[in-house]
What we know:
- With 188 residues, this protein is mainly α.
- The protein has one domain: Up-down Bundle (AhpD-like).
- It is built from seven helices and no strands.
- Helix 4 runs antiparallel to helix 5, helix 4 runs parallel beside helix 6 and helix 6 packs across helix 7.
- The two termini are 31 Å apart.
- It comes from Amycolatopsis xylanica.
- Keywords: Oxidoreductase, Peroxidase.
- GO terms for molecular function: peroxiredoxin activity.
- This is Alkylhydroperoxidase family enzyme, contains CxxC motif.
- Pfam families: CMD.
Amino acid sequence: MPRLTAIKYADAGPLLKLVYRYARKRFGAVPEPLTLTAHHPGLLRTSAMHEMMVEKSAKTLPLSVRELAVYRTATQLGCSWCVDFGTMLQLHDGLDIERLKKIDDYATSPAFSHAERLAIAYADAMTATPVTVTDEQVAELEAEFGRKGVIELTYLISLENSRGRMNSALEITDQGFTSGAACEVPLR
Length: 188
């Protein structure tokens, strides 16, 4: 149970109700982090705009590379909400979610491509405390994805670090996106 009480639909103002309806239609349920961030309307608007802009802008890397790096970051942080939501997003994007069970063995598993392995290792290095990224690692990523790709990957991993740490601090845990109504939302 989260450390703060969520704003329920019945207690929401007209604009927030609209946001909740949109989220429910898109994801099958209103994401709990949204219902807590709703206590600060300015940050909710900022966060929602930021997430939409990132989603539209982050198209340089292959989808599987992006999603696996973000998923790995969530698992390294132990953010069960992020793992749950990220799995649902990968399912909706048509990615193979069965291989997520092998992510701890990514370095040797044939389930992951060379590019995916590089991104997952980078997520590990960026999420470690302290950060363990090396010059050689960034050079290898640049050779594989180009500078724009390195920036995109770095941004997405750092964003997931932010999300996961906020969720952990507020004790937001998995919401059942991979087993509940979210799976009933038509796949894209």
